[in-house]
Design brief:
Layout (H helix, E strand, L loop, with lengths): L3 H28 L3 E6 L2 E6 H30 L1
Antiparallel strand pairs: 1-2
Length: about 80
């Protein structure tokens, strides 16, 4: 049995999930355009809520991509 149909199904599923998440994010951003203050380590920032959410999302995405790579590299070195 070939792996191609399974891979195609996964690809379609991932694409659908990505499109739904982007749609939800766009609606969320459209509904949260107010400014919000953030106080962090003595600094104060005031930006629109969607900007803060975008910054947190990007940081979370980078952590999600980089941490597994770092762990995989560490596991290879320990072998």
């Amino acid at each position: 049995m070939s792996q191609e149909p399974v891979n195609r199904e996964r690809s379609v599923t991932r694409t659908v999930v990505a499109v739904v998440l982007v749609a939800v994010a766009v609606v969320f951003i459209a509904q949260n355009t107010d400014s919000a203050p953030v106080h962090f380590l003595g600094w104060s920032f005031r930006l629109q809520t969607w900007v803060w959410i975008l910054v947190i999302f990007v940081l979370g995405f980078l952590a999600g991509v980089l941490v597994p790579r770092y762990r995989a590299r560490s596991a290879k070195k320990s072998r």
